[in-house]
Design goal:
The complex is a heterodimer. Chain A is mainly alpha-helical. Chain A is built from eleven helices and no strands. In chain A, 70% of the residues lie in helices and 0% in strands. Chain B is α+β, with helices and mostly antiparallel strands. Classes of the chains: A mainly alpha, B alpha+beta.
Chain lengths: 259, 258
């Protein structure tokens, strides 16, 4: 039988796919977070970065297609494996069952994954496709241009996006669940690929905990800084002034105050 | 002491089952769980009721025949202990103890608490052995085995094939069992010639039997009466990956001196 067929058909083969695509997606999530953290630099930094990506299709599209393929394979394996798992116990225990050492994260991987997926779809519509009817801010983020360069203003878009409390809250819940998902998944992927033993088990466990927590803190810092600490509000108000009438007053009040 | 026993009764595979609650006669706290069931059955038989069917054999924790999910945990409340070595002193006077059979599609129910675990035998037949030429016994120590490898192989070989791992797993996965059987031979020099053929054949048979997949929850390890480590599953995954990449062995191309 050819190799790809044997991988797809066997239980362990699908676990390898889960692990490898999971590893790829984890690397993306890490890179994406590092890119996003430019939000804490002056607005030009993340705007320049966004402009670079958007105007470099030879990097952007292979990355997008690769990510889509990984997400599709990750989900397809998860769903087929999970269907087999359900079929393996058609009659559940009638009495009370116990967790028997299984963590909450390990028991809810499918659910946390599906909620994160729902978030990703929203997130893409929100910030990538820039569908203005779902952003809750009441205006089109496509209208935000950086005053100096005239390029789309990503910095202002992030500020305006997360100024809507329920959007920020959904974001926080999603990255929280991602953290839970990764807390189990990062360790399990090494197990699935057979790269774990009594020496590396504890190290991998510690890495999974630390990395998933770092991912959570890195991502969560952005909406929290906007919503709680008003980070970037003054700048965004200036950018917004051109398109939203009621922002003009705020700009006048701040005139001379902001750099 | 006396306890209440809420036990799964089911006439056969096709009948529908239900819990029935029985009051035990006076028990000695030093009785094993199985002895308690024996006493219970005597009482049931005396009263004209069908005794509770349950699996048992050696009653000293090494044969893997006893099973039972006791109060939601395969083999009862203790760690590293099979049902046969669980004693009534682990329960309190008047406790209601819930007893169910192992539940998994590849372990079809036979009667009451008895399930058919022949799926494990078929996995063993697929590759859980070594092929040796018969003849005179080799000299002792003619094949050097590092102490560490021998110890680890022994840890894996402790598996008694009871199926508690399957019963505990939320996916009814048999990977702890299969990985123990794969590793126990795969760690020793005698097991090397068939190492990759073995893991491939056993995992494929495990899939064919309809067991679920490992999601690394660790429940199997937590209930295993022999405390087989989850690390063996990683070892099996590694060997299976190598086996997949190696592919099947080259077929002999005719001729030869036969």
């Amino acid at each position: 039988m050819n190799l790809l067929q044997s991988i797809w058909r066997s239980s362990l083969g699908k676990k390898y796919i889960m692990a490898l695509t999971g590893a790829g997606l984890f690397l993306f999530v890490t890179g994406h977070m590092v890119g996003n953290l430019q939000f804490f630099l002056p607005p030009e930094a993340i705007n320049r970065y966004g402009h670079f990506l958007k105007t470099t299709p030879e990097i952007l599209w292979p990355a997008r297609i690769g990510l889509l393929a990984m997400v599709a394979l990750h989900i397809a394996s998860a769903v087929t494996l999970s269907a087999k798992n359900k079929a393996a116990r058609p009659q559940p225990y009638a009495g009370k069952t116990k967790d028997l050492g299984a963590s909450v994260a390990s028991r809810t991987m499918l659910m946390s994954g599906l909620i994160v997926l729902a978030f990703i779809i929203y997130h893409l519509l929100h910030f990538t496709a820039v569908v203005d009817s779902i952003n809750g801010a009441g205006f089109d983020f496509d209208q935000l241009y950086e005053p100096n360069s005239g390029h789309p203003d990503i910095y202002a878009m992030i500020v305006c996006g997360f100024s809507v409390w329920y959007v920020a809250l959904f974001y926080l819940v999603a990255v929280g669940l991602l953290c839970v998902h990764l807390g189990h998944g990062l360790a399990a992927m090494f197990q699935s690929l057979g790269l774990k033993d009594h020496v590396w088990g504890p190290r991998i466990g510690a890495f999974a905990k630390a990395a998933s927590l770092a991912i959570f803190l890195g991502y969560a810092s952005i909406p929290v800084s906007v919503l709680v600490f008003g980070h970037g509000k003054a700048y965004a108000d200036v950018v917004k002034a051109g398109i939203v009438p009621d922002a003009a007053g705020a700009v006048k009040a701040l005139k001379g105050g902001a750099k | 002491m006396k306890v209440k026993l809420k036990v799964w009764r089911q006439k056969n595979r096709d009948a529908s089952g239900e819990f029935k609650t029985y009051q035990s006669p006076e028990l000695n706290p030093s009785m094993s769980f199985l002895e308690m069931l024996d006493v219970m059955n005597e009482q049931l038989a005396a009263g004209g009721e069908e005794p509770i069917a349950f699996d048992h054999d050696c009653r000293e924790g090494i044969c893997g025949t006893c099973s039972l999910v006791i109060d939601g945990k395969p083999h009862g409340p203790h760690k590293g202990v099979a049902t046969c070595q669980t004693y009534m002193r682990s329960f309190k006077e008047g406790d209601e103890i819930v007893v169910e059979p192992f539940r998994a599609h590849p372990f079809p129910l036979v009667k009451d608490l008895v399930v058919d675990r022949k799926a494990f035998d078929r996995i063993q037949h697929a590759g859980g052995f070594i092929s040796v030429r018969t003849g005179a016994a080799p000299d002792a120590n003619s094949i050097p085995v590092p102490k560490e490898a021998a110890d680890l192989a022994m840890d894996a070989a402790q598996c008694i094939g009871c199926g508690a791992c399957v019963a505990a797993c939320k996916n009814a996965s048999a990977m702890l069992f299969v990985s123990a059987k794969v590793s126990h031979l795969g760690l020793l020099p005698q097991g090397q010639p068939e190492r990759y053929r073995r893991v491939k054949a056993m995992v494929d048979q495990m899939d064919a039997e309809g067991f679920g997949n490992c999601t690394v929850t660790g429940s199997c390890e937590a209930v295993c009466p022999k405390e087989i480590s989850l690390d063996f599953i990683a070892r099996m995954n590694r060997d299976y990956l190598v086996a997949l990449l190696k592919g099947d062995a080259k077929k002999p191309s005719g001729g030869g001196a036969g």
